[in-house]
Specification:
Blueprint (H helix, E strand, L loop, with lengths): L1 H19 L19 H10 L6 H7 L2 H16 L7 H4 L6 H14 L6 H8 L9 H22 L1
Length: 157
Amino acid sequence: MAGLQQTNSEMILLSWVRQSTRNYPQVNVTNFTTSWSDGLAFNALLHSHRPDLFDWNAVASQQSPVQRLDHAFTIARQHLGIEKLLDPEDVATAYPDKKSILMYVTSLFQALPQQVTMEAIREVEMLPRHTRITREEHVEVHEQHFSQEVSFTFLLS
């Protein structure tokens, strides 16, 4: 039951993010790992609710992922009171930590307007399953494949 509640919470949170960032063509959030590593999603989320805080085009076009992440975390701390819970270098990776991203996005969700439409939730439900694969699932699949190869090799010997 707890897993179902977590899945529903993640779906609502992802729906809110997608709905909030819909007008930012450079941003397509489909998960809580790789979709965040370039810093654009955090900045778009902030800008969609508080466009008065910074110039989106300047941030989106002229900064590196680490700079964009640092910018978003600094804006959130200064204007929303959200502590820098993440280091930009830890997020600007191939597979950022899902739980850390979820924790930070939840903090943003609590500080910003939270309206989520049923349309946004249905859109997330329709996302292809492969776009929502987490790092843990990715590692698990590779581990299973590796153990099958080892077992197969052992049987052939």
